[in-house]
Amino acid sequence: MSIPDPSGPPGASGTSKTLHHGLQVLELLVTHPQGLSLTEIAEGIGVHRTVAHRLVRTLEAHHLCRRDRFKRISLGTGLVRLAEPVEQDLRTLARPVLEELTDAAEASAHLVVRENAEQVRMLMIVEPRQARMHVAFRSGQLDPIGRGSAGLAMLAARPAVAGEREEVARARERGYAVSTGEIAPGITGISAVVPTGRDAAETSIGLSLFEAPDPDRLGRLVVAAAHRLGALLK
């Protein structure tokens, strides 16, 4: 359960050992959205339980982690506040790209970000101005990463793994993911990962519509939009 240390040994010249361990706690909790016990955290970052206790208490004071009634520790709401400026910049850059996509496809366009190892979050949806009917979703909605085109596109951006869904492999081949009825009955989603040059796929852009008579054309529109946004984010 331990996490890799990409920054070298704690206490290296010019670094803070305590801050290093505190960030390790947060990184560990990201990979365990169901929460961890204090002992599991101590073992995960390789420190004594007393040190882990002080780290968690400090993070709790800043609302960066929290304990449930079973004393399991998970990420706190303070992280949302810290992330808001970054997400606001992302929304600002994405809006004109989404508006262009929704006009071209005459369907609702969405921006989805990875929330944790198991979930994705709808960050923004732009509805078409001309279509007679369109799909509407609530911003902030959380969905499993393994269901729906947005999460499937993120999974497809990773190397293949044993037992993965056929839809993930197909998305990897095509460059975009397609799903029907996985997030809402009768709704088709078409999504592609936004290329940012980072190792992990954290953002996808896509369409939600009632019918997709030509998914290849829509897929090409989505991929082109994803690349436009990726160029803005680099």
Automatic annotation (TrEMBL):
<keyword id="KW-0238">DNA-binding</keyword>
<dbReference type="InterPro" id="IPR014757">
    <property type="entry name" value="Tscrpt_reg_IclR_C"/>
</dbReference>
<protein>
    <submittedName>
        <fullName>DNA-binding transcriptional regulator, IclR family</fullName>
    </submittedName>
</protein>
<dbReference type="InterPro" id="IPR036390">
    <property type="entry name" value="WH_DNA-bd_sf"/>
</dbReference>
<feature type="domain" description="IclR-ED">
    <location>
        <begin position="71"/>
        <end position="234"/>
    </location>
</feature>
<dbReference type="Pfam" id="PF09339">
    <property type="entry name" value="HTH_IclR"/>
</dbReference>
<keyword id="KW-0805">Transcription regulation</keyword>
<dbReference type="GO" id="GO:0003700">
    <property type="term" value="F:DNA-binding transcription factor activity"/>
</dbReference>
<dbReference type="InterPro" id="IPR036388">
    <property type="entry name" value="WH-like_DNA-bd_sf"/>
</dbReference>
<dbReference type="InterPro" id="IPR005471">
    <property type="entry name" value="Tscrpt_reg_IclR_N"/>
</dbReference>
<dbReference type="InterPro" id="IPR050707">
    <property type="entry name" value="HTH_MetabolicPath_Reg"/>
</dbReference>
<dbReference type="InterPro" id="IPR029016">
    <property type="entry name" value="GAF-like_dom_sf"/>
</dbReference>
<dbReference type="GO" id="GO:0045892">
    <property type="term" value="P:negative regulation of DNA-templated transcription"/>
</dbReference>
<keyword id="KW-0804">Transcription</keyword>
<feature type="domain" description="HTH iclR-type">
    <location>
        <begin position="16"/>
        <end position="77"/>
    </location>
</feature>
<dbReference type="GO" id="GO:0003677">
    <property type="term" value="F:DNA binding"/>
</dbReference>
